[in-house]
């Protein structure tokens, strides 16, 4: 999609065509395109059908109601913040007293929309003309143009002094085939530039990849890892809040686990329950804080599984009741599953090279019952733990 074809979607004819192609399934596209090209320009028809595809993909992040009104680019759908995460960040900024934000590398406006809905005035900046046009169209489509100013510019040339806060979401894709970038200095703009911009503002938030090494977090920053529905989505460096704090935030909620600098938990024998910490807790290196809440220890000093003898409610980990412990042995596992008539087998692993699908093929589960097997290490030894979700594992 180019600037001209995108602009054509914003015309009355384009809007009418978008309404007409709404809900078109992939298998129907050829027939629909053939019919519509009899009365509309071919380029406009292609743009409308392409936009309909993007809106379907975007519904998972933005919700169907917003996605059906918004405008997207392929990169915009891929790189935008999920609405639940953006709303959480906007609420944090609002609670900090922020009333205006310079949103640098704003993309198609996902975060700008959340900020505006929190009552915050936003300058949304992106250097790509098509992306900026999509952000502007989205502010108009959602009735937020009074709170969102979109500017096509290089973020390094923006004076952020007039704004209460700065938010930076550097591009983390590029290189060959548009793959993920893992070196923070290869972000666009580099993380060092973003940190410099953050330090000039009263409050700032920098969105980064959740795999960022902890040692690269600046001393002036608070680091927050965020999961949504159990899936880790991103990390954020906060400035102007609590320097040195590490937190894991679980959505919906939010449920927040704050770091207290605890030492690593001790290794304990396998207890009745195994707790699998949320991914944000693991990424934030807060397994010790979760283990303390559960009065638990580790199965192995290198594995983020917590074991305990009692079942305690926690939002920070999922609990399983362990019924069997075996040294790693596929034949013994197959025999046990056959004896228990297990046909629905969930395989989880941590610290094992065995792939779950490979194990399922080898044990060929059959029967009406369900079980979970953990492929892990216990005190360094390859081990299989068999059990099932505990009935009370969250609050």
Describe this structure in words.
The chain is of the alpha/beta class. The chain is 33% helix and 26% strand. The strands form three sheets. Strands 3-2-1-4-7-9-8-10-11 form a nine-stranded mixed β-sheet, sandwiched between helices. It has a seven-stranded mixed β-sheet with strand order 13-14-12-15-18-17-16. The two termini are 46 Å apart. 42% of the residues are buried.
Task: Explain the layout of strands and helices.
Elements: H1 3-9, H2 12-21, H3 29-36, H4 42-62, H5 64-67, H6 74-79, H7 83-95, E1 100-104, H8 110-117, E2 121-126, H9 129-141, E3 148-152, E4 165-168, E5 173-174, E6 179-180, H10 191-199, E7 203-208, E8 222-228, E9 231-239, E10 246-251, E11 255-258, E12 273-277, H11 279-283, H12 287-294, E13 297-298, E14 306-308, E15 317-327, H13 330-340, E16 342-349, H14 356-363, E17 369-378, E18 381-389
Helix pairs in contact: 1-4, 2-4, 7-8
Notable characteristics:
395 residues, alpha/beta, nine-stranded mixed beta sheet, seven-stranded mixed beta sheet, 14 helices, 18 strands, flat
Strand content: 25-35%
In the sheet with the most strands, the strands line up as 3-2-1-4-7-9-8-10-11
Tell me, rounded to a whole number, the average pLDDT: 93
Based on CA atoms alone, the radius of gyration comes out at 25 Å
Q: What is the number of helices? A: 14
User: Which spans of ≥5 residues are poorly predicted at pLDDT below 50?
Assistant: none
SSE class: alpha/beta
Q: Using DSSP, what is the number of strands?
A: 18
Shape: flat
Distance between the termini: 46 Å
Helix content: 25-40%
Q: Sketch the major β-sheet.
A: 9 strands, mixed
């Amino acid at each position: 999609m180019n600037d001209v074809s995108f602009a054509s979607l914003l015309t009355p004819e384009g809007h009418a065509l978008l309404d007409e192609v709404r809900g078109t399934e992939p298998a129907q596209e050829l027939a629909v395109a053939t019919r519509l090209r009899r009365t509309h320009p071919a380029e406009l028809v292609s743009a409308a059908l392409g936009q309909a595809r993007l809106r379907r993909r975007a519904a998972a992040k933005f919700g169907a109601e917003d996605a059906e009104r918004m405008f997207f680019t392929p990169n915009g759908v891929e790189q935008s913040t999920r609405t639940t995460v953006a709303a959480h960040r906007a609420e944090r900024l609002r609670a900090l007293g922020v009333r205006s934000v310079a949103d640098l590398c704003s993309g198609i406006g996902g975060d700008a929309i959340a900020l505006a809905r929190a009552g915050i005035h936003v300058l949304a900046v992106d250097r790509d003309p098509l992306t900026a046009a999509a952000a502007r169209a989205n502010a108009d489509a959602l009735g937020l143009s009074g709170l969102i100013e979109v500017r096509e510019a290089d973020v390094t040339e923006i004076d952020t002094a007039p704004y209460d806060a700065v938010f930076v979401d550097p591009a983390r894709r590029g290189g060959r085939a548009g793959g993920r970038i893992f070196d923070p200095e290869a972000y666009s703009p580099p993380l060092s530039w973003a940190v410099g911009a953050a330090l000039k503002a009263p409050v700032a938030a920098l969105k980064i990849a959740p795999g960022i090494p902890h040692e690269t977090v600046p001393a002036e920053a608070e680091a927050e890892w965020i999961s949504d529905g159990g899936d880790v989505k991103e990390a954020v460096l906060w400035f102007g809040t609590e320097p040195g704090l590490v937190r894991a935030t679980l959505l919906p909620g939010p449920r927040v686990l704050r770091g207290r600098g605890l030492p690593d938990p001790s290794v304990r024998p396998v207890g009745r329950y195994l707790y699998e910490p949320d991914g944000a807790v693991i990424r934030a290196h807060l397994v010790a804080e979760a283990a303390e809440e559960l009065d638990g220890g580790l199965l192995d000093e290198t594995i983020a599984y917590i074991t305990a003898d009692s079942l305690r409610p926690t939002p920070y980990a999922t609990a399983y009741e362990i019924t069997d412990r075996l040294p790693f042995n596929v034949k013994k596992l197959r025999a046990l599953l056959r004896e228990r008539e297990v046909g629905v087998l969930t395989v989880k692993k941590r610290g094992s090279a065995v792939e779950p699908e490979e194990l399922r093929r080898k044990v060929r589960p059959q029967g009406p019952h369900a079980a979970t097997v953990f492929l892990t290490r216990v005190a360094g030894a390859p081990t299989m733990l068999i059990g099932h979700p505990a009935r009370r594992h969250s609050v």
